[in-house]
Design brief:
heterodimer; A: mainly alpha; 12 helices; B: 547 residues; alpha/beta; Rossmann fold; 3 domains; six-stranded mixed sheet; 20 strands
Chain lengths: 293, 547
């Protein structure tokens, strides 16, 4: 009986996503990336309880010191523990990176898919809006948002997301326009499937490759964008920290206190590598044309 | 000694999935003024064999493991790359299948023609521009380009498919090669154009005394043009000999299978059409596309379907024949409301489809389905067979989660696919199997009408025969009505009860299949029927003689 059921499962198979998971679990590099990201996320979540010091705890007498037993990654010029600051910074950076990218992903894929699929006048209007947004000076846009709604971190996510979706929309649109003319989409039409079902089931899964790759590139660029905004005083304010901010300050004192640059840099690069491994793995896993084993 | 002598040629592809023996111990010879046809289905190694002679194979993965190819006493497989370029430029020329992708769209055809003359490898043979132009124009005239002086500066897109192939032939001949390799030179062309191109190749061969290697899957074409035939399958030579011997006295099973697979003669199955009970009535249907390239005011139209009226009786297989651009595909799509119609009505089982909103149309969509030409494009690459087949069933509420597995299995039985293949993706199947999946999807909703748009044109001849028989069986078992669209007249004759001939958006002629074949009324139909190559050397040569 059990064997019967099992065989049935085996035959009736699986969807793209289940297959993708099976393939991903055999890709050690991607799993390694996923592991690193999970570790970073867990550490960020637990930071208030496991951080060795408070993030605003200063020790002006200590000043900037290199790595030591008390301070594993050294201290900054105010004598604040770097490990603590990187851990707290990770909270901000990872949240900004993931949420802002998720916003960009959601808006960009839907916008591009609809514009490309419907085509004609709708497409023209939607893409002109994208062009206008491109042309709008990004800083003015964000400063305006900040002025109108006041400064808060949620708005920062939205603001960054609202800028990053433009390229995503263009990538998805060009993909969809090529897919729309394919016979399998016409076959779906002739089956009477609704437009929305066609977009969801037949169009979007076939755009995933480039979308995933671009997403893994967007996350680090969003993190750096946050640093840039914070540097201008539009984002996170000291004593709060983020990786981007730490790197910015680290650059200023690079010659005297290199560890202030190196350690936050390592944290950011590690995330970036992990994302790239995972992204490549996902892209391959979601493409049935790559070998199953 | 023969002009080209190939001995024991063996080529392996070292791929990630293991070793593929693309060509295995192949030997043949071609003399000057002689035509050798290499016949085989896709993947038989016929193209690889010829490309290896010109060092045009991608290496890796291809590795020439053994063999010699003596061209005028010189081994092509071991000669120096520089010498090979010289040979390619002047002694051996190739005509490829698709004349559009083989020409550079940004350079005028004249410029492309004189290129090999002006930049010839051998400096002493280089010509100055004026002589080269003169030579090119003479050659264009010879291959049948009208007004070559003026056409010299035209770009490839300004020529029709047949004319482009003529330009390709001129390009191949410009350095007066001694061996001409034609790789399916007429496969992408319409049947009337094909006849002209074949005639041209024959004529040029006679006047210039070149040797020709003619690669083709079409035995009808081969019957008319070849002196010798070599049949290949899975990289090996199955049979070789004089054309007459291969066609009339073949002793090889594979050759016999190939010959038997050619659709020939009339439909065997009885006509199941119920008289005076039309399922589909089309009246004065017009589908125009605005042609932005020609019009400044947007009022110019391409009349893809121009005032077409027709009925399809219940249970009938209606063949729709036409050359490329005749509007036959658009007509099929217009009937299914997949292409926007300009005017006219389509009545399906008493209901005017044009009056329905997309939502109201959904129940009707269930009752009429389509089979597409290209089984590589018509299946979603990211959906398994199970998903592809279950989607229409679940969407139209014809199955629930309890019955769906059983129903998908039933469909797979219907179209002859093994249950174990249920969770595979399209790329894991061959072309014929993919077309089976697509047919399964089309019959999943138990439709009454199926419009099949060139369903076998992309398939090999033996596979084509299987799919045609499958379609015939399904039509009978499920009581289907079918509009069968094709450019291939033999296929249409084999499958249809009644035939309509379409040209430039209008129905030229319509009659019972055998009546039309026996007694075509219109000049255009007569031209079409005359142009069909016959897979019988004697008849084919008589036919060509008659043209």
């Amino acid at each position: 009986m059990v064997a019967d059921n099992l065989q049935q499962q085996e035959e009736c198979g699986t969807s793209l996503w289940q297959d993708a998971w099976v393939k991903l679990s055999k890709n050690y590099l991607a799993l390694f990336g996923l592991g690193i990201l999970c570790l970073l996320t867990v550490v960020s979540l637990l930071t208030p309880w496991i951080a060795p010091y408070g993030y605003e705890e200063q020790n002006l007498l200590l000043g900037a010191t290199g790595p030591s037993l008390d301070h594993w990654l050294g201290t900054d010029i105010f004598g604040r523990d770097m490990l603590t600051r990187i851990m707290y910074g990770g909270r901000v950076s990872l949240t900004v990176g993931f949420i802002a990218t998720a916003v960009a992903l959601l808006i960009g894929v839907l916008w591009g898919a609809i514009a490309g699929f419907v085509g004609g006048r709708t497409d023209a209007v939607m893409m002109r809006i994208v062009d206008i947004m491109y042309a709008l000076p990004f800083m003015i846009f964000i400063v305006l948002l900040m002025v109108v709604f006041g400064r808060n971190i949620l708005l920062l996510f939205l603001a960054i997301g609202a800028v990053e979706w433009l390229t995503m929309a263009r990538i998805v649109r060009s993909q969809v326009m090529a897919l729309r003319k394919q016979e399998f989409v016409e076959a779906a039409h002739s089956l009477g499937l609704s437009e929305w079902t066609i977009i969801r089931r037949h169009i979007i899964p076939n755009t995933l490759g480039p979308v995933i790759v671009y997403t893994t590139l967007t996350i680090p660029s969003v993190m750096l964008l946050e640093a840039f905004l914070s540097f201008l005083g539009l984002g996170i304010q000291p004593p709060q920290s983020s990786w981007g901010l730490l790197i910015n300050y680290g650059v200023e004192t690079m010659e005297e206190y290199p560890w202030l640059l190196i350690f936050p840099g390592i944290a950011l690069s590690l995330t970036l590598f992990a994302l790239n491994f995972l992204g490549d793995g996902l892209r391959d896993a979601l493409d049935p044309r790559t070998a199953k084993d | 000694m023969a002009l080209l002598e190939v001995n024991g040629l063996t080529i392996y592809f070292h791929t990630r999935n293991g070793l593929v023996k693309a060509v295995d111990d192949v030997s043949f010879a071609v003399d000057a003024g002689e035509t050798l046809a290499i016949v085989g289905e896709s993947g038989s190694g016929k193209s690889v064999t010829c490309y290896s002679l010109l060092d045009l194979l991608p290496k890796p993965p291809a590795v020439i493991e053994a063999g010699t190819a003596l061209f005028d006493g010189e081994d092509l497989l071991t000669c120096h790359p520089a010498r090979m370029r010289e040979i390619r430029g002047s002694d051996i020329a190739v005509i490829f299948q698709d004349p559009m992708t083989s020409l550079n769209p940004f350079i005028s055809i004249g410029e492309q023609l004189i290129e090999p003359l002006i930049y010839h490898q051998n400096k002493t043979q280089r010509k100055d521009r004026k002589t080269a132009r003169k030579m090119a124009i003479d050659l264009l005239d010879e291959v049948g380009i009208i007004n070559p002086e003026a056409r010299f500066d035209c770009y490839p897109h300004e020529f029709s498919g047949g004319m482009r192939q003529r330009v390709m032939i001129a390009m191949a001949l410009i350095n007066q090669p001694r061996l001409l390799i034609c790789d399916e030179p007429t496969t992408a062309l319409d049947v009337t154009i094909q006849a002209q191109i074949l005639e041209l190749i024959k004529k040029l061969q006679k006047t210039r005394d070149v040797a020709v290697i003619f690669i083709s899957h079409d035995l009808g074409v081969v019957a008319g043009i070849a002196d010798k035939v070599m049949v290949m399958c899975d990289g090996t030579v199955r049979e070789a000999g004089d054309t007459a011997q291969i066609f009339y006295h073949s002793e090889n099973d594979y050759t016999k299978k190939l010959l038997a697979a050619i659709p020939e003669g009339a439909k065997v199955q009885p006509n199941r059409a119920e008289k005076h009970k039309p399922l589909v009535e089309v009246s004065h249907l017009k589908t125009y596309f605005s042609d932005s390239s020609k019009a400044s005011d947007g009022k110019q139209f391409i009349k893809a379907v121009d005032d077409v009226s027709l009925n399809i009786q219940r249970g009938e297989i209606l063949g729709l024949v036409g050359e490329s651009g005749s509007g036959k595909s658009t007509l099929g799509r217009s009937i299914l409301q997949l292409a926007p119609t300009t005017s006219g009505t389509v009545i399906f089982d008493g209901t005017v489809l044009g009056d329905l909103s997309p939502k109201q149309l959904v129940p009707w969509r269930r009752r009429m389905q389509m089979i597409f030409q290209d089984p590589y494009a018509s299946l979603n690459p990211r959906m398994t067979v199970y998903e592809t087949l279950s989607e229409p069933l679940l969407y139209h509420g014809l199955a629930n989660s309890n019955t769906i597995d059983q129903q998908v299995r039933q469909l797979m039985d219907d179209v002859g696919l093994a249950h174990s293949q249920m969770r595979k993706y399209p790329h894991e199947f061959s072309g014929g199997q993919r077309q089976r999946i697509a047919i399964g999807r089309a019959i999943a909703t138990r439709p009454e009408l199926i419009i099949a748009d060139e369903p076998v044109s992309a398939l090999d001849v033996t596979i084509q025969a299987q799919i045609l028989d499958l379609i015939l069986a399904l039509v009978e078992r499920h009581n289907l009505t079918m509009l069968f669209i094709s450019h291939d007249l033999s296929v249409v004759r084999y499958i249809s009860d009644r035939v309509m001939v379409m040209n430039k958006g209008v129905i030229v002629e319509s009659a019972e299949t055998e009546t039309l074949w026996a007694n075509p009324q219109q000049e255009y139909t007569r031209q079409l029927l005359k142009a069909i190559p016959l897979a019988d050397p004697k008849q084919e040569r008589m036919r060509i003689g008659n043209i």
